[in-house]
Design goal:
Layout: E1 8-21, E2 24-30, H1 32-37, E3 43-47, E4 58-61, E5 64-66, E6 69-75, H2 79-85, E7 92-99, E8 112-118, H3 125-134, E9 138-145, E10 159-163, E11 170-171, H4 174-186, E12 191-196, H5 199-211, E13 216-219, E14 235-239, E15 245-249, H6 250-253, E16 256-258
Parallel strand pairs: 8-9, 8-12, 9-10, 10-11, 12-13
Antiparallel strand pairs: 1-2, 1-7, 2-6, 3-4, 3-7, 5-6, 13-16, 14-15
Bound molecules: flavin-adenine dinucleotide (FAD).
Amino acid sequence: MHETNAIADSHATITASRHISPDTSVIRLSCPHIARTARPGNFVNVRVNGSTQPLLRRPFSIHNAENGQIELMVKEIGRGTEILCGTEPGTELMVLGPLGNSFSDPTDSFSTAVLVSGGIGTAPMRFLEKNMAAAGKKIVNLIGGRSQKELLSEGLSNCRLATDDGSLGLKGTVVDLLDKELSNITADGAVKIFGCGPTPMLKALASYCRQHGLCCEVSLESVMGCGFGICYGCSVEIANPEGGTKTILLCREGPVIDGALMV
Ligand SMILES: Cc1cc2nc3c(=O)[nH]c(=O)nc-3n(C[C@H](O)[C@H](O)[C@H](O)COP(=O)(O)OP(=O)(O)OC[C@H]3O[C@@H](n4cnc5c(N)ncnc54)[C@H](O)[C@@H]3O)c2cc1C
């Protein structure tokens, strides 16, 4: 995992915003510093409007970064995300970033990057896929959702799908899908797993990878305040490699952790 690059609070203008599902939008922001320095897995903390309501910024993974712009994939779940998804292009927002660590660089020790995501957890995968593909890795996306309408595959290639209710793809979880696909995928050489999604999904994924000796990194979520280690709002418990468990601040020592450290 990589440490954070130089953080800046940028005036960022929304240059485009489009719905990709009834409750999810991809929002593009002109943000040259962040676009230049961001790495896959980093996130930004966005002030969603110019007022004090909501008071706290909201964190979002960087979905894509190119040509001086970043994209965010935002699911509306409350006041802050509703405001952001309803904000018109041309509006300027304050965007702090890039924050957090990032997924590891592609190495020679694997030939296929298996990107396993659930729900809005697909948000960081486009940027990660681009980085992996540029390094010559084969890409497999395994994407899960409760039902067809919750499957998000925006900008991703070679996608295989699973839904809890069987409305599209395999009926089951995305970990069931990994289990079904693993022998085919590993026939092409060594793999590395990258996961992002709800915590129960990531726990199941990390546990599966441990049982099958697969190397895995996961990007976690928590409720978060400042985004840079002052408010202590995002503490999570992980395994301590020296024994027992320890608490980390997800905004600084995460959001990406070694899957072997999930508890
Ligand atoms: C590192 C990081 C990266 C993230 N990346 C993305 C992303 O790319 N796209 C995206 O849509 N969302 C992402 N999120 C989640 C996003 O930040 C929250 O959905 C958002 O802050 C909710 O704000 P709100 O005002 O709409 O909802 P609120 O009114 O604040 O909350 C609505 C409900 O959602 C719950 N909630 C709030 N934040 C979270 C959270 N982080 N995880 C789980 N439940 C939460 C609240 O407890 C409440 O029940 C990320 C979160 C983190 C920590």
